[in-house]
Amino acid sequence: MTSYVLGRLAAAAGVVWAASVAIFAAMQLLPGDAVDVIYAKGAGSGTVSPEQKAQLRAELGLDRPVVDRYVDWMSGVLRGDLGRSLFSGREVTEIVGARLPNTLALAAVAAVCLAPLAIALGAWAGARAGAARDRVISIGSVTLGSLPEFVTATLLIAVFAFAWPVLPAVSLVAPGTSPLLTPEVLVLPVVTLLAVMAPQTIRMVRAQMAEAMTSPYVRMARLHGIPERRIVTRHALRNALAPAMPLLAGSITWLVGGIVVVETVFNYPGVSQDLVRAIAQRDLPYVQSVTLLFAVVTATGYLAADLAVVALAPRLRTTPGWRR
Questions:
Q1: pLDDT tens digits, 228-246
Q2: How many angstroms separate the CA atoms of 227 and 218, rounded?
Q3: What pTM value is reported for the model?
Q4: Close Cβ partners of 275 (under 8 Å, ≥ 6 residues apart)
Q5: Is the same domain home to 133 and 231?
Q6: Same domain for 67 and 156
């Protein structure tokens, strides 16, 4: 088990490194740079000489070789230094630190609600495959999963903020306060995230649960008079969860991308607002560091899923070649 964990940690580190290269390369491929944006917003790009732009690029370090800039950025990241914003001059850690708690609170609430909701609905539907509840849950999950998050968010706002005004349409949080102190601002964003994340996991758990309920060990348990609820919760569900764990982890790590859209729609004061603005401004240090942070969260989620699969299915630890 120790060698497996070390191998997975090494693989996760390799994924993060590859993501850092891809992120840095993608930023270099964007048209224009921070200098173009600065002069376009200020004096106007047509009234600035190439020498002035070259001087500003030298001051910002944008004229240095690409490899040197990548090495400097990654060495700073490894030291905990994410660099400075090209526009405000503030430390990226300072900018992110002001909004990251809000994003983490939203993501944590959605993740905590996702696992029990998806597992419970999937298991409930799969335990009686073909029954009315199975059809209702399956149709509902397919319908919700087919809607983009901004469409789901718009529908929720129309219903619960305008037609039936019980929740705020805009999730405003006072600076320096926790969104958990005003939980009503989290309801619609969390429901939107769950509506997009949960369907795939529900369908996977449902399929695995339906297969487990027809297995020989379940039939044998019924012949021995074991109560149906115990068969479902103690035997079938445990084996159904193992294949579904990677997909559940994928749904949770989807928060990394989906939360950007949700925060933008609800005007929620998370890191997404600054990220969208930084992309438009070509603020490379900020965009690179925040995107790399998202990549670390994603790799960590899949690593946790791999370890959870082994924990849920002990037979994997005794199967020849499972470490591969």
A1: 778 777 777 777 776 777 6
A2: 11
A3: 0.73
A4: 260, 286, 287, 290, 291
A5: yes
A6: no
